[in-house]
Amino acid sequence: MNPVAIDFSILWPAFAAGLLVTATHVPLGAQVLSRGIVFIDLAIAQIAGLGVILAASLGLEPQGWVTQVCALVSALAGALLLTWTEKRWPDVQEAIIGVTFVLAASGALLLVASNPHGAEHLSELLIGQILWVSPWQIALVALVYATLLAVWFVHGARIGRIGFYVLFACTVTLSVQLVGLYLVFTTLIVPALAVRRLARHRLAVAYALSATGYALGLAVSTLYDLPSGPAVVWAMTVLAVAGLVLSSLLRQTTSQ
Questions:
Q1: How many CB atoms are located within 10 Å of the residue 117 CB?
Q2: Helices marked H in the chain — which ranges?
Q3: Taken in order 234, 20, 185, 70, is the CA torsion positive or negative?
Q4: Burial 35-61 (b: 16+ CB within 10 A, else e)
Q5: d(CA 32, CA 236)
Q6: What is the pLDDT along the chain (256 residues), one digit of tens a residue?
Q7: Can you give the pTM of this predicted structure?
Q8: Contact partners, residue 240, CB within 8 Å, separation at least 6
Q9: Is 1 helix (H, G, I), strand (E, B) or coil?
Q10: Using an 8 Å Cβ cutoff, are 182 and 229 in contact?
Q11: Rounded Cα distance, 223 and 2, in Å
């Protein structure tokens, strides 16, 4: 596998998309981890993807506004359902989230079973098409994300359970179509896990880790002609593990 030249005209929109996802998912990931509902993003992202696949099965344009509405309505319905179950059965919420994810994934498989492009739709849902995002997509997502971040940082402590799930559903609906389900989950959880024991600067370190993971993964995928989504997932995870090992060694050194 010989390395090839890096095409920055392709990389910069992809990296911009990664930074946008990082901006929203890092703070939300910390909240998801503290609530003990780690797989909520997979469930809601899969439900949003189910809405996209349903729209595609009806012959609608993948990037059309009706498809986006289908995805958002599906995600909001899933979010409100999980809000209700968390209030009704909090002790088994994680299990309910898992069942919801399996149902949504199975429903997507049933919808694409007779579609000749079904495998392609599922692949785009899982690993995304980050290298092919367009500037207009980035501009639109940036506008929506800026609004969601403002709501989160200004009113996050007062929006309550329903507000959190609704905001989360809106964010994930956009992200899963921008970078794919695997990267949505990784960006939410890996940085949050990596910084959970830090006493200070958690958010800044998590942001730096995620951004560096996107940059490194995209560069490696371009150099060696590898799928970009999985490359970023591995890059971010390896960086997180390396950071945890290094911080552990530093703590041991200072304690001696």
A1: 10
A2: 8-35, 40-57, 65-88, 93-112, 118-127, 135-155, 160-179, 181-194, 202-223, 228-255
A3: negative
A4: eebbbbbbbbbbbbbbbbbbbbbeebe
A5: 18
A6: 555 555 667 788 899 999 999 999 999 888 888 877 777 878 888 898 888 888 877 776 666 667 778 888 888 999 889 888 988 888 888 889 889 999 998 998 888 887 666 666 667 777 777 888 888 889 988 999 999 988 888 877 777 778 888 888 888 888 888 888 889 989 999 999 998 888 788 899 999 999 999 999 999 998 888 889 999 999 999 999 998 888 777 766 666 6
A7: 0.84
A8: 190, 191, 193, 194, 209, 213
A9: coil
A10: yes
A11: 8
How far apart CA 33 and CA 36 sit, in angstroms, is 5
Q: In the block, which residue shows the tokens 């609608």? A: 60
Q: In this structure, what DSSP letter does residue 61 have?
A: -
Is-contact 38 184, C-beta < 8 A? Answer: no
Residues 206, 241: Cα–Cα separation, whole Å = 13
Structural domains in the chain, sorted by start: 8-248 (1.10.3470.10)
Task: Say which residues have a Cβ less than 8 Å from residue 182's Cβ, sequence separation at least 6.
Answer: 126, 127, 128, 229, 230, 233
Q: What is the DSSP letter of 131?
A: G
Burial class (CB in 10 A: 0-12, 13-18, 19+), 77: middle
